[in-house]
Amino acid sequence: MKSFRVVVFVLILLSLTSDCHAALKAGFYVGKCGKQNVESIIRNVVRQRFARDPTIVAALLRMQFHDCFVSGCDASVLLNGARSEKTAPPNLSLRGFDLIERAKAAVEKACPRVVSCADIIAVAARDAVFLSKGMNYRVQTGRRDGVVSLASNVNLPGPGISVSQSMGFFANKGFSTREMVLLIGGGHSVGVAHCSLFQNRLYNFRNTGRPDPSMDVNLANRLRGRCPQRSAIDNLVNLDQTPSSALVVDNGFYKQIKARRGILEIDQAMAFHSSTSAIVTSFANNGKSFQTQFGAAMIKMGAMQVLTGKKGEIRKTCGARPRRSS
Ligand code: HEM
């Protein structure tokens, strides 16, 4: 009886310690793919694409946000299916799925069924940030892929969300107001938005018959040219309006919104809301502190509700789950 109790105790202890080991860490794949360097394989794929198309940076950053904020960083956003997350309206304009699949094929060739799609998103997003002059933060790995992907789980905010609603949304997921300003600002320091998502600010803002008074008049005039009313074409506009930094992950976004040159309503509102304006000013004035804190916020975002250890699975391709053998 006594030895039985000892065995049970040891088993409980083992299961507890194996859980402790199942955490994310930098360099998780070192030694797990023969002599191959998994992160270099992914970086090469990102670098090749970036050389042809630097807008891939924005695509990867947004993809990680949309993956992590919906049922955790588990690559559920990549799964195909009639009702999968991909089909939810906020995800219809996501880009970069082909790059992730290309990186997956490259790591599968080096060592099959070792590297998760969720880790590929995180590593590729970090590489993209670094390639576009952002911080080379120490990305953590060790995630496994989720098995559930449902459009009905996608509850991402729209561009008209207020600052206080957005603070609530981020707080619910464990992020402070400062981290919210970092993530939205760092994310929107690159990339584009469709006219349809901010057109309300250009013509008849909140039924006033006038443009949004918080938008710089010259910018509003220019954007009306780019986004005509009742146009069949939904044009794209840079989220960071300084041409030289529209593709650079930097603090230029904060300077722009302070100058009333934000594109999305939420971006502009952060510059003047009492809870966020001082944070915006501090990042506008200090590019270095923005970079280090943005890196830390990305690491935190990448750790949201991750599956590690024996949880989840490692897919063979990122768009589909392995078929069950019958
Ligand atoms: C309250 C939170 C947020 C809202 C309401 C929001 C909303 C939006 C909207 C409406 C667009 C334009 C989409 C389109 O026109 O197709 C956009 C683009 C983008 N967002 Fe956000 N976003 C938020 C937070 C974030 C965060 C946290 C990140 C990343 C850390 C991020 C990264 C991006 C990027 C990179 C783009 C450009 C994508 C591209 O060029 O393809 N966003 N966002």
**Rounded to an integer, what's the Rg over CA atoms?**
22 Å
Instruction: Report the CATH C-level class of the largest domain.
Output: Mainly Alpha
- Gross CATH architecture of the largest domain: Orthogonal Bundle
User: If you consult CATH, what is the topology of the largest domain?
Assistant: Peroxidase, domain 2
pLDDT under 50 segments (min length 5)? Answer: 10-21
Pfam families: peroxidase
InterPro entries: Haem_peroxidase, Haem_peroxidase_sf, Peroxidase_pln, Peroxidases_AS, Secretory_peroxidase
Binding site for Ca(2+) 2: 240, 250
GO molecular function, one term: metal ion binding
Write the layout of secondary structure elements.
Elements: H1 2-21, E1 25-26, H2 38-52, H3 56-68, H4 97-110, H5 117-131, E2 140-141, H6 163-172, H7 177-187, E3 192-194, H8 217-226, E4 236-238, H9 252-258, H10 265-272, H11 277-285, H12 287-301
Antiparallel strand pairs: 1-2, 3-4
Helix pairs in contact: 2-4, 2-5, 3-5, 4-5, 7-12, 9-11, 11-12
The structure holds protoporphyrin IX containing FE.
Residues 58-59, 61-62, 65, 93, 95, 157-159, 161, 166, 183-184, 186-188, 190-194, 197, 264, 266 line the site of protoporphyrin IX containing FE (HEM).
Describe this structure in words.
The chain has 326 residues and is mostly helical. The protein has 2 domains: 25-153, Orthogonal Bundle (Peroxidase, domain 1), CATH 1.10.520; 163-301, Peroxidase, domain 2, CATH 1.10.420.10. It contains 12 helices and 4 strands. It has a two-stranded antiparallel ribbon with strand order 1-2. The structure holds protoporphyrin IX containing FE. The site of protoporphyrin IX containing FE (HEM) has 25 residues, from helix 3, helix 7 and strand 3.
